[in-house]
Design a protein that fits this description.
Blueprint lengths: L1 E8 L2 E7 L6 E6 L13 E3 L4 H14 L17 H11 L7 E2 H11 L7 H9 L12 E2 L12 H10 L14
Parallel strand pairs: 1-4, 5-6
Antiparallel strand pairs: 1-2, 2-3
Helix pairs in contact: 2-3, 3-4
């Protein structure tokens, strides 16, 4: 069993999920986003009184107030296999307000997993399944040409988060299909 709560944010309603011991966050999703719920495949029970959720709300308030809270302050336990965990580990390294490409992450993951190369598309898939959006900053990943693609919560939210963090938007663009 997992527990969840809902949090109101500038992005809309967020759903936060913790493990049954109420010790680790396993999910933070925008309501209705692609891959909502991710690998949390069992029942979730709403509980708004969990101390960890209060800590998360404080962290999010700090973030949305323009501060740079450290994700290490939150106990994170995203559920996923070795490859996804490797990708999510690389996402955690992206500094506030900066961007990296899927290809750069692919190169780092290849080194970490002792492989000669790694597909940027495979990395994109793992990024899309990031269960802890905002905290594990998948919004900071862009296409090699500066295209703002691949945000499960929606590109308008990705743009909002990057602008909120003061990222240099001058070399970034929305795909024509947006």
């Amino acid at each position: 069993m997992f527990y969840f709560t809902e949090i109101t944010s500038p992005l809309g309603q967020l759903a936060a999920v913790c493990d049954r011991e109420c010790e680790n966050l396993v999910g933070l999703w925008n309501r209705g986003q692609k891959h909502f719920g991710g690998s949390v495949k069992i029942d979730m029970v709403r509980r708004d009184d969990i101390a960890l959720f209060s800590k998360l709300k404080d962290w999010l308030d700090s973030y949305f107030n323009g501060e740079k809270p450290d994700a290490a302050l939150l106990p994170l336990a995203p559920i996923g296999g070795e490859f996804r965990q490797s990708v999510w580990g690389e996402l955690k390294k992206i500094p506030y307000g900066e961007t990296v490409t899927y290809g750069e992450i692919a190169g780092n993951v290849a080194v970490r997993l002792n492989r000669r190369s790694m597909s940027a598309q495979a990395v994109g898939g793992a990024v899309g399944y990031n269960p802890l959006s905002i905290i594990i900053p998948c919004h900071r990943v862009v296409g090699a040409n500066g295209s703002l693609t691949g945000y499960a919560g929606g590109l308008e939210k990705k743009v909002f988060l990057l602008k909120h963090e003061g990222a240099d938007m001058s070399k970034l663009f929305l795909p024509k299909s947006f």
